[in-house]
Write a sequence for this structure.
């Protein structure tokens, strides 16, 4: 906000004191629109190990609830609150309240965020599960649950990892907002390492992914 204020002051200084308040207000509106149109789709939260989102005080039905797409949808405050819960009864009440907040304002006769989540999560489980690890909690499952089907899927050879295939999901510029409240990025890349397909972003991805793989919670 500070940089935006400085931008507005520079507009005022350039046009001089003769600019009317109405003209200045119009210039500010134009600046706001220009910044909004130039803003890219919001990035996801930085991926963290599943064990950091695991609440060991809860039963198996609730302990891993934050892992995957829920972590991306929840606020930092909600994440902290859930990790401090000490009983399944508290967890059930928390989850009910979470979805109530998510569903607020949903259009009449249209699917609620909770319904969309549950339908996509079921499909992600059928596509991306590995062993007993639910597909909705994998990296591909997370993106699918949050943003739905990609417009296109492309397979390319990795430039840095001896030709290991990179799976790229592409979303169009007209894609609607996802369950995070933001539009998806244009591309999401995934790399298959052994029996796991994980996010691929840079040359260090292989070591990072292997480290994350060892720390995955097994269900």
């Amino acid at each position: 906000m500070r940089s935006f204020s400085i931008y507005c002051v520079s507009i005022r200084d350039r046009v001089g004191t003769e600019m009317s308040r109405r003209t200045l207000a119009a210039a500010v509106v134009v600046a706001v629109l220009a910044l909004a149109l130039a803003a890219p789709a919001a990035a996801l939260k930085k991926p963290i190990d599943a064990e950091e989102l695991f609440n060991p005080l809860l039963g198996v039905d609730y302990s891993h609830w934050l892992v995957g797409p829920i972590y991306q949808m929840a606020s930092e405050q909600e994440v902290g609150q859930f990790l401090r819960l000490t009983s399944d009864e508290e967890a059930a009440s928390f989850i009910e309240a979470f979805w109530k907040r998510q569903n607020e304002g949903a259009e009449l006769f249209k699917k609620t965020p909770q319904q969309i989540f549950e339908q996509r999560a079921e499909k992600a489980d059928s596509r991306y599960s590995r062993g007993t690890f639910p597909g909705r909690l994998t990296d591909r499952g997370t993106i699918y649950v949050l943003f739905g089907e990609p417009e296109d899927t492309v397979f390319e050879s990795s430039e840095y990892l001896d030709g290991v295939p990179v799976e790229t999901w592409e979303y169009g510029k007209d894609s609607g907002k996802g369950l995070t409240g933001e539009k998806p990025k244009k591309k999401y890349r995934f790399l298959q390492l052994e029996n796991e397909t994980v996010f691929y972003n840079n040359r260090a991805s292989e070591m990072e992914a292997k480290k994350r793989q060892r720390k995955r919670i097994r269900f």
Notes: The longest strand covers residues 187-193.
